[in-house]
Amino acid sequence: MIRALALLAALAGASAAPHGAIPYAAHTQLEQLERTLAPGLGSSAAAQAQYDAARELEDAVPPLDYVTPACRPLERALLGVAVGVVTATDGVDQLNQGRLRGGRHRADAALARAGALQGTCAAFGRAHPIHPPQPDVIAAPRAGEAFFGDIVEENYGDEARLYANGRLVSTHVGSARDVRFRLTLPPARYDLEIRFREAGRPVWRSTAPGTFLLPASARVAHPPTATDGRLQRGLRRLGRSFDGYAAVYVHDLRTGRAAGWNADARFPAASTVKLGVLAASLARWHGHVAVRSIDEELRALTGWSSNLAANRLLLLLGHGSEAEGVRVVQAALARLGARESTYPQLYRVGTSVDEPPPLATTRVTTARDLGRVLASIAAAATGRPAAFRRTRLGEEEARYGLGLLLTSARDGPNAGLLAGGLPAATPLAQKNGWITDVRDTAAIVYGPQGPRIVVVLTYRQGLDARRAAAFGRQVARLVF
Q: Which residues of 341-355 are buried (b: 16+ CB within 10 A; e: fewer)?
């Protein structure tokens, strides 16, 4: 790491020059990152500060197409340092020594390259894009969003061809202002592309990568209006059979029928209340150019439940103040219907096995609260004005949030408690949480009879994760 000092000295005078974003990032943000690395890369106590500094370095580096050719090698080296540090600190949070070592090696190698490149980024001029112009974005759905089959885009020719994952699925002929398609493929993740032709010649293309197609039956979000007595009795029998404390809540979004067991009991929330961070972040930033790494943070938060990402987003929401960030997230949870849930402070990095006794925790939730949160997001995703007024989530924001939850990792602890009791291809928009003695899952299950919210919370001192998963499978088989 000491080679960074020579790099900083060489670039110290370049930060104020026009077109000097790369030297400025190297001088300012790399210096800040270097200070956080003093205790050692990836040390538990310093991991959050290292992670935040690496993300700020990423945000300070402009896209490659806007960098002069002389500065591009240094740009790649700086991003390599940032990615390496993020990987190493993720290893700390996930208690994954292989990821920690791999990230440390990448950061060291990239920093050595940056040191060797000192002085190569001295010429400032106009950057010329080295890639062809990027295609337009499809109007709806946009990249990463969940959607219910409808595709809309402005028309750029007399023929439009729709491709899903590279395969031609539909053709539209005509010169109407907009082109509309209806995608009827199985529910799954799809990269969408529309290729436009005029008089037989290609003229334009629009894309939406990483969308998640849901069945048309999923476009419903009826509030709970009646109790499913038979399911209620079944859940009571299951809940009483669990060797520990359990809570279950089920809400059929198609019919409005609901049932539960222990649904209003307060349980350790673990990471489930990060749904509040997701909602607050989407309401503030989605669709706007604000902080470049926000999308990466949201993917880490939903993808593998990163404490580091949740903490950074909370501080950004609070403009650097933990107390203000907590207030913003708590307000978001309340807007989504979480009446008993709490989000008292930042998460401790690596808390999956390092946590106070769960029943003494101040971060709590209920099964019904988590069910209300997911129901609110689902309602906003249908475009209902009342849901927008209540949640402050527009249709695009809510669908993007669903897209993130639908594509979260489904392995290890993040597989959740329901997956083993459902067909493998069943779409699950889920948020899981786990600490010592706790396994929680809150999910919207998009089954053939329509979407159902299922929340399962389990707690027992010395909880065997396999027993919790077995209980979740029993719940899934009872509900479906």
A: bbbeebbebbbbeeb
Phi, psi of 259 (to 5 degrees): -155, 160
Does the structure show a pLDDT above 60 at 27? yes
What tokens appear for 201 in the block?
């010649």
Angle between helices 294-304 and 47-60 (to 10 degrees): 140
Reply yes or no on domain 219-479 having CATH 3.40.710.10: yes
Tokens found for residue 274: 């990060």
Whole-Å CA distances, 299 to 122, 281, 318, 404, 406? 36, 12, 20, 6, 11
Reference 222, options 387, 97, 101; nearest CA is 387
pLDDT at 289 over 50: no
Rg (CA), the chain: 24
Instruction: Tell which residue, 200, 203, 201, has the closest CA to residue 156.
Output: 203
pLDDT average, residue stretch 137-156: 96
Angstrom distance (rounded) from CA 437 to CA 359:
10
For residues 247 and 235, give the distance between their C-alpha atoms in angstroms, rounded to a whole number: 9
3.90.1640.10, 2.60.40.10, 3.40.50.300, 3.40.190.10: which CATH number matches 136-213? 2.60.40.10
Contact 418, 454 (CB under 8 A): yes
Contact 98, 76 (CB under 8 A): no
Confidence at residue 358, expressed as pLDDT on a 0 to 100 scale: 57
